[in-house]
Amino acid sequence: xxxxxxxxxxxxxxxxxxxxxxxxxxxxxxxxxxxxxxxxxxxxxxxxxxxxxxxxxxxxxxxxxxxxxxxxxxxxxxxxxxxxxxxxxxxxxxxxxxxxxxxxxxxxxxxxxxxxxxxxxxxxxxxxxxxxxxxxxxxxxxxxxxxxxxxxxxxxxxxxxxxxxxxxxxxxxxxxxxxxxxxxxxxxxxxxxxxxxxxxxxxxxxxxxxxxxxxxxxxxxxxxxxxxx
Length: 229
Ligand code: DX5
Ligand code: ZN
Known about the structure:
Blueprint: E1 10-13, H1 23-32, E2 37-43, H2 55-62, E3 68-74, H3 78-86, E4 92-96, H4 103-112, E5 116-121, E6 139-143, H5 158-169, E7 175-179, H6 187-193, E8 197-200, H7 212-228
Helix pairs in contact: 1-7, 3-4, 6-7
The protein binds D-xylitol-5-phosphate and zinc ion (ZN).
D-xylitol-5-phosphate binds at residues 14, 16-17, 39, 41, 72, 145, 147-148, 150-152, 179-182, 199-203.
């Protein structure tokens, strides 16, 4: 059963869908539009097919993000480069369980740096993968698309996984974040399953609107309205 109060649902626009030639202002527009966190996707073209950007861009974006920066690493060999991303000082740093050889070491390194730690699960990784991590994490990111691209369709079988994780967490204060294919139309179902952080890229950002803050505000408010009914 979902214990979430909809007022506590965090909306985290994913800048993967934003204008890459103007990312600083895109972040600022989403913040002015009332988002809670900004979700920043690092993709290396190896763990996932596409590339986005690396640590240098994340460090630059840090100066443009006054809400919580929620960094999601979709990269191979996370263990080898985690220090580079810790140095960017995100508020939250999520790593994939499928890409860490020594997940405990990576998570405790993030936590001991004063950054909130998250794990992400690909669609076919079972909910049980969280079992030995609960003492070391602040959030679980349930991937509801195969990571690597924005604009994909939500994989509906993941709703049962969100519920299973919510049940397994009991009263622990660990966020369940859902990433991929989130829209105004399915947001309510996702929150009812137990998620309390909604990442949305293509449902919020739009590269060609003239008044982007107004457009992003409408989209964010649309999601908030959808989950509050
Ligand atoms: C996908 C990324 C997501 C992506 C979501 O691999 O992790 O954060 O940007 O985009 P939408 O909301 O368009 O599915
Ligand atoms: Zn993401």
